[in-house]
Design a protein that fits this description.
about 475 residues; alpha+beta; Immunoglobulin-like; six-stranded antiparallel β-sheet; five-stranded antiparallel β-sheet; PPM-type-like_dom_sf; PPM-type_phosphatase-like_dom; Protein phosphatase 2C
Length: about 475
């Protein structure tokens, strides 16, 4: 009664009616009259309904203005993000539906409170939650809350693939992938123009060459032309061809034949002198090849009236031959391109060269630098190994080494090479598989696809040679 009396008192007061003290008994009697009691009851109910309606409107407004952040997505990449009504405090929703996700390639799962799918378009896009809250009648209209979902474009789609100038006198194909027998083994090799070059229509600077040589020898060469050198594409091509040509010259063929006796002596004696003789042979013969390549680049630069620096290129090459006692592998390397041999059971790795790297960059050396031939470390650029057998011989440019091994310290780690093999076998983001089998008819196409792997910040030319 007290609440009802106060309600009427406040109502009268708001209308300019004040109840004096001597009218209080009359006022009390007025409130007790049946017709007025009915009105008071309705007033009370209306007041309660009004308050309930306000709380409902306030709750709707609260949800509509509540900030909800949805994790960003990327076009073409599987997406799964929480969208949990309980977490947002939306337990009082009595009905809801979500619209607009299907057009983005996504869907909402009420079972696990997630938005999942593979986004099909990029941009600052919206989807909508339509809802009703407790207190609303069943036939009330749904309220719409728009939510922002930022879908980033596929990074690969941002790169252009402009053709290089085929009329350029030093033009070469943007990609070459080959599979070929090589001695008693097979070689799978691919060299691809990097995205940074394709984006501006410039040339592939990397190159490679290989050849079955007389007397059972085989040679594989990889060269990485320096991006800052205006004719590096020609420098790398000349360097690779120069190595192959050198080992086909009669004098080199005759000299390499002498290696057979040295191997037999070493296999039977395994003494210090025989190893010394072998290392001297490698230094002498491979050193002549490297120096001849340098002189050929020098002659070309002079004839074309350019600087030798314009042809700057790294150079690695490996010769291998099978003997009764195992495989002889000889190597030379200048620059930041590694050569590695994996044991037959892939439990050990043998590095055939060390790579030129600088603490702050710029540490790479090139076959065009005269000083490498006078440097006291020149003799350490050669490698010799006699192995019972091997599973894979890998040679690569830094376009492969940088994204896949990152740092030089990873190269002696067999676990990193096992990861690299697993990557080739399909354990990668693109599920790109290279089946390293001599009977695989799609092996070239598979490697070509694998070479397109995405690695943020690594968009240089890529060359990978695998002997298996």
């Amino acid at each position: 009664m007290a609440d009802a009396k106060q309600l009427v008192t406040d109502l009268f007061k708001s209308n300019g009616i004040l109840i004096p003290e001597h009218r209080m008994k009359l006022f009390d009697h007025f409130l007790q009259e049946e017709q007025n009691l009915a009105i008071l009851y309705q007033l009370s109910k209306n007041q309660e309904q009004l308050m309930a309606n306000w709380k409902t409107e306030e709750r709707i407004a609260e949800i509509l203005h509540q900030p909800i952040r949805i994790p960003n997505a990327t076009v073409g990449k599987p997406y799964a993000a929480p969208f949990d009504f309980e977490q947002y405090g939306w337990n009082d929703l009595i009905a809801f539906r979500i619209e607009g996700l299907e057009a983005l390639g996504l869907a909402y799962s009420a079972e696990n409170n997630q938005i999942t799918g593979v986004p099909t378009q990029s941009g600052d896009l919206e989807f909508s939650v339509y809802f009703k809250v407790e207190g609303q009648p069943e036939d009330a209209p749904f309220h719409q809350k728009d939510l922002l979902l930022i879908i980033n474009p596929d990074p690969k789609s941002l790169w252009k693939n402009l053709e290089s100038d085929k009329n350029d006198p030093y033009w070469k194909e943007d990609e070459v992938t080959l599979f070929s027998p090589l001695g008693d083994r097979h070689l799978l090799v691919s060299s691809k123009r990097g995205r940074s070059h394709a984006n501006v229509g410039s040339f592939r600077e990397d190159d490679f060459a290989f050849k079955e040589l007389p007397n059972g020898w085989n040679v594989v060469v990889v060269s990485d032309g320096a991006g800052s050198a205006k004719l590096a594409r020609k420098g790398s091509a000349l360097a690779c061809a120069g190595v192959v040509n050198y080992f086909q010259e009669p004098a080199a063929v005759e000299s390499m034949a002498e290696f057979d006796d040295l191997v037999q002596q070493h296999a039977s004696q395994t003494g210090e002198d025989t190893l010394k003789n072998l290392n001297h042979f490698v230094y002498n013969n491979l050193g002549k090849a490297a120096f001849q390549v340098h002189k050929q680049l020098e002659s070309f630069a002079k004839a074309q009236d350019i600087t030798l620096k314009d042809l700057s290129s790294t150079l690695i090459f490996t010769l291998f031959k099978k003997y009764d006692v195992g495989y002889a592998l000889l190597s030379f390397g200048v620059g930041d391109c590694p050569i590695a041999v994996l044991s037959k059971d892939v439990t050990e790795v043998t590095l055939m060269n060390w790579i030129d790297v600088g603490e702050f960059g710029g540490g790479t050396r090139f076959i065009t630098m005269p000083e490498i031939f006078q440097n006291e470390k020149f003799s350490t650029r050669f490698g010799f190994k006699l192995l019972d057998d091997f599973s894979y011989l890998f040679m690569m440019s830094d376009g492969i080494y940088d994204p896949k091994f990152v740092v030089e310290a990873s190269l002696p780690d067999i676990a990193k090479w096992q990861e690299f093999l697993a990557d080739l076998k399909g354990q990668n983001e693109d599920k790109a598989v290279v089946e390293l089998s001599t009977t695989n008819p799609d092996i070239e196409a598979q490697l070509s696809r694998w070479m397109d792997f995405w690695s943020p910040g690594n968009h240089d030319d890529r060359t990978l040679a695998i002997v298996f």
